[in-house]
Amino acid sequence: MVEAILVLLLVLGFLALQFKDLVSAVIALAVFSLLSALLFYLLHAPDVAIAEAAVGAGVATVIFVWVIGKTERREP
Questions:
Q1: N or C end of the chain: smaller count of CB under 10 Å?
Q2: What's phi and psi for 49, nearest 5 deg?
Q3: What are phi and psi of 74, to 5 degrees?
Q4: pLDDT, tens digit (0-9, with 9 covering 90-100), for 41-68
Q5: pLDDT at 37 exceeding the cut of 80
Q6: For the chain, what is the HEC assignment?
Q7: What pTM was computed for the model?
Q8: Nearest to 62, CA basis, from 38, 17, 18, 29
Q9: Count of CB atoms within 10 A of residue 22's CB?
């Protein structure tokens, strides 16, 4: 189970770097953070898992989406 989550984390990290659309990259990072929280929970670190879920998937994602919404989009 842990190995599968680690492989998924590698794939999501690579995808987040490859996406051209910022919202897609933020969503990939949010899923990355949720999987990280699950991994910490499985490794018996529930306090770190709760912090990762709250900050990584919660607050950071909201801030990123809010900032992307406030920026001007220029067509290439």
A1: C
A2: -65, -40
A3: -105, 135
A4: 999 999 999 999 999 889 999 999 999 9
A5: yes
A6: CHHHHHHHHHHHHHHHHHCCCHHHHHHHHHHHHHHHHHHHHHCCCHHHHHHHHHHHHHHHHHHHHHHHHHCCCCCC
A7: 0.85
A8: 29
A9: 14
Q: Which two tokens stand for residue 49?
A: 């898992």
In this structure, are residues 39 and 9 in contact, taking their beta carbons and an 8 Å threshold?
yes
**Side chain identity at 56, as an amino acid letter?**
G
Give the whole-angstrom CA distance, residue 13 versus residue 30: 10
Average pLDDT, the chain: 92
How many other CB atoms are found less than 10 A from the CB of residue 32? Answer: 20
Query: For residues 61 and 39, what is the distance between their CA atoms, to the nearest angstrom?
Result: 19
Question: Tokens 């949720």, residue?
Answer: 34
Spatial distance between the Cα atoms of 74 and 23, rounded to a whole number of angstroms = 15
